[in-house]
Each structure stands twice: as C-alpha cells, then as structure tokens.
Amino acid sequence: MNTRFLPRGLFASAIVLALSLSTGRAEDILKELEAGQSGHAGQTGHGSHDAAKPSHDHSAMPGMDMGGGKSKKSPHDDHKQAAHDMPAGGTMQGMSHGGAMPAGQTHSGHEDMRGYLGPYPMVREASGTSWQPDTTPHAGVHATYGEWQTMYHALFNFTYDHQGGPRGGDKTFASGMFMGMAQRRLGDGTFGLRAMLSPDPFMGPSGYPLLLATGETADGRTHLVERQHPHELFMELAATYSYDITKNSSAFLYAGLPGEPALGPPAFMHRLSGMDMPEAPITHHWLDSTHIMFGVVTAGVVLDTWKFEASAFKGREPDQYRYDIEAPRLDSFSGRISWNPIRELSLQVSYGHLHSPEQLEPDRNEDRFTMSAIYTQPFGKDNVWSTTAAWGRKIVKPGNTLDGFILETAAIFKKTYTVFARAERVQEDELVHDAPIYTVNKVSIGGIYDFYRTDHAKFGIGGLVSFYGLPGDLKPLYGDPTSAMAFLRLKIE
Questions:
Q1: First and final CA of the chain: distance in angstroms?
Q2: Which of 80, 195, 330, 348: CA 20 to 30 A from 3?
Q3: How many Cβ atoms from other residues are within 10 Å of residue 81's Cβ?
C-alpha cells in the first residue's frame, strides 16, 4: 500500500469552502438586492450596472479589479487598469468594481471575473491550467465576500448503464462533480483557490461497465478492463497566483494536491463538447487521465493569445483508495503550448514523461504526446455548438506505442435541448492478456431535455446509445454489441 496522508488544514479549508458556497442564501440575497441595488450601482462607478443581472455577452468578459475600492497605487496600476481592455481577438472594456458588493451577494454572469492565470476572460480557463475558446458560455454562480470573488458550479448524473455483449454488464450509479473557486487581488497579482469533489467513489471500487475502456485498478491486484474507474473524492485542491506583466501578459504558478499538470486538452468533464455525456471516453488514458495527480506544480507565462507552461508532478495514477489524499512526489514532467488565435478556437500541443504510471506495472514508464483543437460557436439566441478533435500517443517503455483519436461534438439549443456525439479510434493492448494490438472503434450519440429550470439550476433527462467497430479476432469475445445509458441530470451553473 502506498504511503498516504491527509493534510488537515487543506482538507478543512476545502470543506469550509464547499459548505459556504453551497449554503442557500436566497432570502438574504433578495433583501440585499432590494435594499442595496442602487447603492451598489454607485459603488461600481458605472451608474446603472446591476450586479445581479446575468450577462448576455459571455464571450467578451473583462479583467477584474478586485482591490475592494482601495486607492493606493503601485508601479503596475497602469497595467492593471489596462488589463480591463481584453486581449487581441475581439474584446470590450471591463467593469472595475471600486467597492465591494454586499457580502454574499450572488450573480450569474462572468462579466466581472478575470482569469486566474492572466488578464483575460475567466471562461478561457478549463480544467487545471488548460484553455478553451473565449466563446465558451459561462457556467457558475458568483458571489462577492469583501475582496474575494467566488464561483461554484456542479453537475451530477444518476445513470442506468447497459453494456451489451458477453463482456458487457449493467449498473445504476451516480457520478459528477462539485467545484468551488475563489480569487482576490494580492499585491500586483491575483491569488486563487480551487476545490473540486466527486461522488464517484460511492459507486464502488470497480466503477461502472464501459466496453473497450482500460486503465487503473479496482483492488490493487488486477487491471480494470471493460470498466471505467471511479474518480477520486478529492479531484482538485489547488492554489494559483498570477502576476500581471503587461495589460495582456502574465506569469503564473499553480500547485495542487491533487491537481492537473500541463498535459493534454481540458478533461472530458470540463470541455463543452463532452461534459454532458454521462460516460467517459475510451481515449481517457491517451489524452486527459492526468487530470487527477497527487502532487503538481506548474509554472507558465501568458503572452496575449499564447500560453507556455511546464509542470513537475507525480506520475503514478491514483490507487484503489478513492477517499484519501496520497503522498505527493515530483518524479515526472510535462510541457504544453496553447494558442487561441481567434475567440472561437483553442489549440494545444503537449508532451509529458510519466514515471511508473501503472501501480501493477511499476517498472514501466510512459511518454505521452497530445494535440487538440476545440471550436465553440454561439449562434442565434441562447444556442451554442462546440466540437473537439484530439490525438494522443502513449509510448510505453518497455512496451508498445499506441495511438488514440477522438472527435466529439455537442449543440445546446435554447439552454434546454442538448444533442451530442462522440467517435473514437484506439489502439489497445490491454483488452486481452498477452494478445497483439487491436484497433477498436466506438461511436456514441444521444441527447438531453432539461424539463425544469431555475435561475441557477436545471434538471434534465437524457440517453445515449453506443455502437462498436471491432476487428474479426475480437468478434468471438464481444459478439456484435450495442450499449445504452439512460440518466437524470442536475446541473448548477
């Protein structure tokens, strides 16, 4: 068993943050808005700005001055003020909140929250330190507590899963995540905290049936095959600090226990094209399986629409104990270059060396290359379409070189109807013990109808069906399977 420990202060901070963010204050908020709306508008210096009103242009969001109304100047004040002008690529001037909102006041827009890693819109940031297009719709409930700006959002699925064929199975389970974030100005930069938790461990150590999925272990003795492993209870506990160099550039530091290194595209549950699908992609361990690593330090620079970053992190994947925090170790490294040439497009290329990633094969290391493109286009009123194309290569030493490809897309209409599809092609050597490499294919299509909505939550019902393309040698093992999922979804944003 690996040595594990639980830093009590960090754990307590995460729980306090989660509880404070999730506590309902609707009645107090309504009273504060009624009594203090005009006074707050005067504080902002923009007269009629209503902090409780959702933004209707989430793609052009300013940098945020979180100074709490202090008038003290520094050599970087000009840069801070200029940071309210958005980076190249189509932007608009931001709003500077000279005074704090009433404590705990909430609002649903991102219009006054800057990125954690630099002077650009917060919606550009996805999981870890990864980027997505600036046109990505906001997802979160915001509040102000003194000089702190906070945001939280959540997504939970209650799923019935049927995987067809002789190697399939059935299971009902809950999955998802809750994420809370907070930031404030600190010196000439921005300090941020993040906590993300998941109900996945409650589904049991062996996860849920998922044909063609491989990776990690349920019991510390055998590989998981044809199943998706549960994610950790603590998916992220991280801190960030970014220092504004100019109006559109910054240097930043990210540290997480757990956290996500600079490797791959945004994790599947955080990118718009994939987050509404209740199943993990079978390319997970080619592209984004490093989104939970126990020990991550990332340093980088943002130069307008470019980001250059490098990480040191623990290469070993999480063990079968899903409720704990494992001892950190910085024995692996990665680097990533990201570029958002236009507001609708985000590109990345990355490389990582993972030291002994598999618990059951400790003498094997892995080199990983990834490339991805994400295109997100709003259209009409309250409609958006997002597509991700990505390639990942695993070079196992000693072992095989294996490629994985994914193309996934999702369209959301009137914030109510979602349709999605995902196509994958993977080279696998773990499906059958001591067998050659097999190239397998999978296509999933489905949709969601949100039948009940409030200001910050929506309840939906959805389903998907999956089809497979298998080589002839695997037909006797798999037959001609078809799989399906039906699910209820709660989304807080």
A1: 39
A2: 195
A3: 15
Token duo for residue 322: 């899903």
Assigned token pair, 85: 């002008």
pLDDT tens profile 272-311: 999 999 999 999 999 999 999 999 999 999 999 999 999 9
